[in-house]
Amino acid sequence: MMMDFKCPPKVLLLFLLFCANHQHLAFKLQGRVCLNHLSKRFPNGVLPQMSGKEGAEDGVTRNADGLTLEEIAGLFKMSVFDLDEGLYGLDTRDVNYGIEIAKARVSREGGLGLGLSEMMAGRDGRGLVLVEDVAEGGNAATTGQFRVGDALSWVGEEPGDMTRVEGLDFDGTLAALGKYADREAVTLVAKRLVRRQPLEVTLIQPDGSEAKLEMLAGSVLRGEMLRQGLQVYDPSQKRFDQPYVTGNCGGEGLCGTCLVAVLEGKELLSLPDRVEAMVLEKRPARYRLSCRTIVGVTNQPGKVVLKSMPTLEG
């Protein structure tokens, strides 16, 4: 389920700077420098690589992919992840972009060194706040983890004291940061839109023919094979979870009948998780389950060569 922001964008420029006495927040709002006591400002009760160079040579702030904050805001959408729990968050509305997670512990001494811009806000406290500036030489910049266009997702102190700010408006984000004003450092987790890189994937069929596919980084191999009308399951294989029958588990990673053999490009694929490792324990090391294999896990272009249904003679 997707909910679009209905209110017109408004931009509030904030430069976060926790003062050394832990009592004030210095910020720049609409060209003015102000000092507000935390108890007045914050209401009570309220977790792959980019290329290019960030900057604003034409007077417009852009990220490393050359996107303006307004363009980035247009690529984000608010999605409901769990309706029963009321859990919502940011996702991408464009299949050509994926979400990358940035995380670092940032010193509070002398300021975080982040400028935030509220791009959208609703009447229910939800909104979209993006990083508008990463101060050169500032604490956030020295971590090397944060970029223009990032959206804060979690703030706090690990373990166990993290506050979710994903999808909150400017005031909600500021309130969450204020909870940790007396800490020496704060952990920041951000979501980042990144353009998904294309990969060339060759699938050698049991009869020796080849199918060449272009997949975007982050694609699940099984899903792309099905979309291209390629045979995924080996009909001769008994199920791992039900060894007395054939058939498949519909992509749950339990039957072990969607095997591929990796001939080239192993480094461009996700590592086997615990379930896949269990299913493939007695299989050759080059075997993978297509339903649990992500292509382009590092978001780098490249070439992958696979043999489908490797247990069949061809």
TrEMBL record:
<keyword id="KW-0408">Iron</keyword>
<dbReference type="InterPro" id="IPR001478">
    <property type="entry name" value="PDZ"/>
</dbReference>
<protein>
    <recommendedName>
        <fullName>2Fe-2S ferredoxin-type domain-containing protein</fullName>
    </recommendedName>
</protein>
<dbReference type="GO" id="GO:0051537">
    <property type="term" value="F:2 iron, 2 sulfur cluster binding"/>
</dbReference>
<feature type="domain" description="PDZ">
    <location>
        <begin position="98"/>
        <end position="192"/>
    </location>
</feature>
<keyword id="KW-0001">2Fe-2S</keyword>
<keyword id="KW-0411">Iron-sulfur</keyword>
<dbReference type="InterPro" id="IPR036034">
    <property type="entry name" value="PDZ_sf"/>
</dbReference>
<dbReference type="InterPro" id="IPR036010">
    <property type="entry name" value="2Fe-2S_ferredoxin-like_sf"/>
</dbReference>
<dbReference type="Pfam" id="PF00111">
    <property type="entry name" value="Fer2"/>
</dbReference>
<feature type="signal peptide">
    <location>
        <begin position="1"/>
        <end position="26"/>
    </location>
</feature>
<feature type="domain" description="2Fe-2S ferredoxin-type">
    <location>
        <begin position="199"/>
        <end position="312"/>
    </location>
</feature>
<keyword id="KW-0732">Signal</keyword>
<dbReference type="InterPro" id="IPR001041">
    <property type="entry name" value="2Fe-2S_ferredoxin-type"/>
</dbReference>
<dbReference type="InterPro" id="IPR012675">
    <property type="entry name" value="Beta-grasp_dom_sf"/>
</dbReference>
<keyword id="KW-0479">Metal-binding</keyword>
